[in-house]
Design goal:
- The structure holds 2 protein chains of 2 kinds.
- Chain A is α/β, with parallel strands linked by helices.
- Chain A has 3 domains: about 50 residues, no CATH class; about 260 residues, 3-Layer(aba) Sandwich (Aspartate Aminotransferase, domain 2); about 130 residues, Aspartate Aminotransferase, domain 1, CATH 3.90.1150.10.
- Chain A contains 15 helices and 13 strands.
- In chain A, strand 12 and strand 13 form a beta hairpin.
- In chain A, helix 4 runs parallel beside helix 10.
- Chain B has 3 domains: about 45 residues, no CATH class; about 110 residues, Aspartate Aminotransferase, domain 1 (Alpha-Beta Complex), CATH 3.90.1150.10; about 260 residues, 3-Layer(aba) Sandwich (Aspartate Aminotransferase, domain 2), CATH 3.40.640.
- Helices cover about 35% and strands about 15% of the residues of chain B.
- A 7-stranded mixed β-sheet of chain B has the order 2-8-7-6-5-3-4, with helices on both faces. Chain B has a 4-stranded antiparallel β-sheet with strand order 11-12-15-14, covered by helices on one side.
- In chain B, a hairpin with an 8-residue loop joins strand 11 and strand 12.
- The N and C termini of chain B lie far apart (about 60 Å).
- The interface between A and B is large, with 202 and 199 residues.
């Protein structure tokens, strides 16, 4: 296999083209003053050249379909092909979003069922499917919290509490909503420090953003107490659904007392990650926030479906997307949930947790240190390489890069920030025991190599299309677009 | 167990290795009072075959109508290779390229996308996509506030000719940061931003002016004049463009003297199906000096340890996973799959194909407008040049007409009366290169039949 591929622009020759794709010549009829001057600098290649180029580029990637991809907090599990086939049915693909609702009853039936299923698995009162990614779901959640306090004349509440283990989007979202961020520490056992929480709570508290199980890979055992204290202080509780996979059908955020939750449908409900999107960040709310949901929302009235908009929900935080969110992603999530059903939902939590705890046990046997020994792993867990880094000089990044040579995508590295030299590992329920064994053996082999030949580790990867890249040069000598050579 | 590979023997061996009796023991840190045993309200699972049949029935009930709506989402021919390549597992099932060495395919496609979008817009730099055009406009407003060195007002002038939903999204997303979005009226004769109305803002502290091209009515704005006015009055210019139109009309990078400062839009016309509204693919471009204020992923070309060319995520210090509360945005992901579709689509069309598609759209829309305005009771709302959409005025309310057309299998356009009540019974129609003369004739015949009856209104 070729390891590198030129840019599509470098394959271009003037006068060439994928001519089967060209419609006949037509006159645009625009006044010359408005016209674009000069030739559009796009590549001119044959159809085969384009097909070969993008096929070759795809072969330079790791994906779930080719490799175990245990990226912590990302839930890289199998994306069933059935879900793709269903979302790509011509009747769904060809429908214009603004076509009358009468011509979209089948599509809307699927979305209504998805809303209902998500409502039940999370224990929330109402769901909006419109946010287009987890980060936008977070935005919707915090914007609703802000709108709630303002509607009550309590608009001075402008602080969001975030544990130090939180994903970077949590504080970034709070800032986007004009909120101040108060970070609180976690205890050595991974739970939130209740004393720190108590100190942070004040009449300025708008709410708290929690992930449970947390990004430390453990279930927050004090959740009932946290809920009591935050609500008593007048704040609301936001559930970051990044790790919902771990508890599906076992415990519901609504029952834990959360007022709002976002779900990453591309994680828990297995829609494809697509090289970085599209995601979908559906939000669920309890009774306090239901009036503020982003629109549109699907309603069922007398056996027909219709969109609820700003006229139906006058206190809504408004619209977040040009139409109704990432409809094709929603259809894939609907199909996934319908195939799995209620029993399948619970199995997701059970087998992802089984796989994580098994892999953790194997890695501890192989000489690795759990960051939170004595705690159960959720669907993911953290190994800290602090000791190995000190003893051998090989750090978490070196282990991660060397794993690529063994044919495994690396786990999440250096996140959460509070655990030094960490690997956050999430195997997911769709991996076999043999695959987990192989991963554990690969990490064990790298550990042995760290003791005998650390140079090989420090310079890994050795079998990828490229070796380690010069990130400093990429930022300093910025080259982010191909430009035609000056004539 | 759908998609779960464990045999009974696997489970037994794994539990033994962990040292617990059963899977339930792994959940023993969850307070017992919170645990649930069942999920009433979630139906039982279905085999793939049964679900496929249910879905096919629903899709068939919705499908195959003759579409004449644009209004922000456009029906174009998508070359067959696009989605056959996009759904290759190595693209479809990969994630954000955190491990660059194992993601060179995704990173190079991002770089090619950025290159194609800068080529189309005439701007210096592009990110690797945002969620959609509407949210990209909201992010552009926030970016302008960060990028403007002198303006303190966070005031954005927003023409009423910008897509009304995009305007609402911009408001919803920027409100928390205190942005003030002020609407600009349009010239009722031409359906373009009223240049006179700008004068009352002259000399005030302005952050940016949004310039749509073409605008929501399909009309082409005088982007040069708007850009000159904004720059002459100390405001940045944010272009909000249909990228397909840029195959024909002057791109934002060439507007006025210095060009726009930021330009955004939705890449949906490039290889992305209508799909009931998403996922689409927003893009954002800017002048080089503002790149550090740009949100979203950016791929950069660099070299590896052996000096070989490679690609990596760059300028990550702008992003939430590094800067947390001080990031340029909370955005993590781009629209990778759709960005890939757009890149392949543009590679297949090339400069010649793209210009022909754009020209064919303009021509079909002229033909559609001529056919419909030949019907008594239908006339054009606005004079002046346009791309591939047109606002028409009917002699009666639009909604019942659209319903009757839908019953005849024709999706006849978008009712403008809610967002622009001042226009009266206004309908926005669109014909792309996918509409034939026979399609247009069919629409005209149906509309003539409907309007020929005595109006109930």
């Amino acid at each position: 296999m070729k390891k590198t591929e030129p840019l599509i622009f470098e394959l271009s020759r003037p006068g060439r083209g994928a001519t089967a794709q060209h419609p006949p010549i037509a006159e645009a009829g625009l006044p010359p003053a408005l016209r674009r001057r000069g030739r559009l600098p796009l590549p001119e290649v044959s159809e085969l050249q384009a097909v070969r180029h993008y096929t070759r580029l795809s072969q330079l990637n790791f994906g779930i379909d080719t490799q175990c991809y245990p990226l912590g907090s990302c839930t890289m599990k199998y994306n069933p092909r059935a879900c793709n086939a269903i979302a790509m049915l011509p009747g769904f693909l060809g429908r214009h979003p603004l076509a009358p609702a009468a011509t979209g009853q089948g599509f809307m039936a699927c979305l209504f069922e998805l809303q209902e299923m998500l409502r039940h698995v999370t224990g929330m009162q109402a769901v909006s499917l419109t946010p287009m990614a987890g980060a936008q779901g977070e935005f919707a959640g915090v914007a609703m919290i802000r709108a709630y306090h303002r509607a009550r004349g309590d608009g001075a509440r402008n602080e969001i509490i975030v544990p130090d283990a939180a994903h970077g989007t949590n504080p970034a979202t709070a800032s986007m909503c004009g909120m101040k961020v108060r970070e609180i520490a976690s205890r050595p056992d991974g739970d939130v420090d209740l004393a720190a929480l108590e100190q942070a709570l004040s009449p300025a508290t708008a709410g708290i953003m929690l992930t449970n199980p947390s990004t430390l890979g453990v279930f927050e055992r004090n959740i009932v107490e946290i809920e009591r204290r935050v609500h008593a202080a007048g704040g609301l509780l936001y559930y970051d659904g990044a790790n919902l996979n771990a508890i599906l059908g076992k415990v519901r955020p609504g029952d834990m007392g959360f007022d709002v939750i976002h779900m990453n449908l591309h994680k828990t409900f297995s829609t494809p990650h697509g090289g970085g999107g599209p995601g979908s960040g559906a939000v669920g709310v309890g009774p306090r926030l239901a009036p503020f949901l982003p629109v549109p929302v699907v309603a069922q009235e007398g056996g027909r479906y219709r969109w609820l908009d700003e006229r139906d929900l006058p206190q809504s935080i408004g619209r977040l997307s040009g139409f109704m969110g990432n409809a094709g992603v929603l259809l894939r999530a609907w199909a996934y949930m319908r195939i799995l059903g209620a029993a399948g939902m619970r199995r997701v939590a059970e087998y992802s947790t089984l796989n994580a705890n098994y892999l953790l046990a194997r890695l501890v046997e192989a000489g690795f240190d759990a960051a939170y020994p004595g705690r159960r792993a959720s669907h993911e867990f953290i190994v800290t390489l602090k000791r190995q880094a000190r003893e051998t000089g090989a750090n978490a990044m070196d282990f991660a890069k060397r794993l690529l040579d063994h044919g495994y995508h690396a786990p999440t590295t250096y996140f959460p920030l509070l655990v030094p030299e960490c690997l956050l590992i999430e195997p997911t329920e769709t991996e076999t025991r043999e695959e987990l064994d192989g991963f554990a053996e690969a990490l064990a082999a790298i550990l042995r190599e760290a003791a005998t030949d650390v140079a090989t580790l420090k310079s890994a990867p050795h079998t990828m299309p490229v070796r380690r890249l010069d990130d400093v040069r990429a930022a300093r000598q910025l080259d982010v677009a191909w430009k035609p050579a000056a004539a | 167990m759908p998609y779960i590979p464990h045999t009974a023997a696997d489970v037994r061996a794994m539990l033994d290795r962990i040292g617990v009796a059963g899977i339930d023991d792994l959940f023993d840190e969850i307070p017992p009072a919170l645990r649930v045993d069942a999920l009433p309200g979630v139906p039982e699972g279905l085999p793939e075959m049964d679900l496929s049949r249910l879905a096919a029935e629903r899709a068939a009930a919705d499908g195959a109508r003759l579409n004449f709506i644009g209004a922000g989402a456009y029906e174009h021919h998508i070359p067959a290779p696009v989605w056959q390549l996009v759904t290759r597992g190595e693209i479809y099932s990969a994630y954000t390229p955190y491990q660059a060495e194992a993601s060179q395919g995704t990173l190079q496609i991002m770089y090619e996308f950025q290159s194609m979008i800068t080529a189309l817009t005439g701007m210096d730099v592009s990110n690797a996509s945002l969620y959609d055009g509407a949210s990209a406009l909201a992010e552009a407003c926030l970016m302008a506030v960060r990028a403007h060195r002198h303006s303190q007002s966070a005031r954005i002038l927003m023409p009423a000719t910008v897509n009304p939903v995009w305007r609402r999204v911009a408001r919803a997303i920027t409100e928390g940061q205190g942005l003030v979005v002020e609407e600009l009226p349009y010239d009722p004769a031409r359906g373009t931003t009223d240049l006179q109305s700008l004068e009352r803002h002259a000399g005030t502290d302005l952050t940016a002016l949004v310039v749509p091209q073409p605008n929501f009515f399909g009309q082409l704005e005088d982007a040069d004049a708007l850009t000159r006015w904004a720059h002459g009055n100390g405001a940045l210019v944010i272009g909000a463009v249909n990228p397909l139109a840029l195959a024909l009309v002057a791109p934002p990078g060439e507007w006025g003297e210095g060009g726009a400062d930021v330009a955004v839009g939705d890449g949906q016309p490039f290889g992305v199906p209508l799909s009931s509204g998403g996922p689409y693919v927003g893009f954002m471009t800017s002048r080089l000096e503002h790149v550090r204020q740009m949100p979203g992923r950016i791929s950069g070309r660099t070299v590896d340890a052996d000096g070989r060319t490679g690609y990596t995520l760059t300028l990550q210090a702008r992003e939430q996973h590094i800067r947390r509360g001080k990031a340029t945005s909370n955005i993590c992901t781009n629209q990778g799959l759709l960005m890939t579709a757009a890149t392949i689509h543009l590679a297949l069309l090339g400069p010649v194909g793209l210009e022909r598609v754009a020209s064919a759209c303009a021509r079909r829309t002229r033909e559609l407008v001529a056919a419909l305005t030949a019907i008594p009771g239908v006339r054009e709302a606005f004079a002046g040049p346009r791309f591939h959409e047109a606002a028409l005025l009917l002699d009666r309310p639009v909604a019942p007409v659209l319903e009757a057309l839908a019953a005849a299998g024709i999706v006849g356009g978008y009712d403008l009366s809610r967002d622009y009540p001042e226009l009266g019974h206004a309908l926005l129609v669109c014909a792309t290169e996918t509409r034939t003369s026979a399609d247009i004739e069919r629409y005209a015949r149906a509309l003539r039949g409907l309007l020929g009856r005595r109006s109930a209104a």
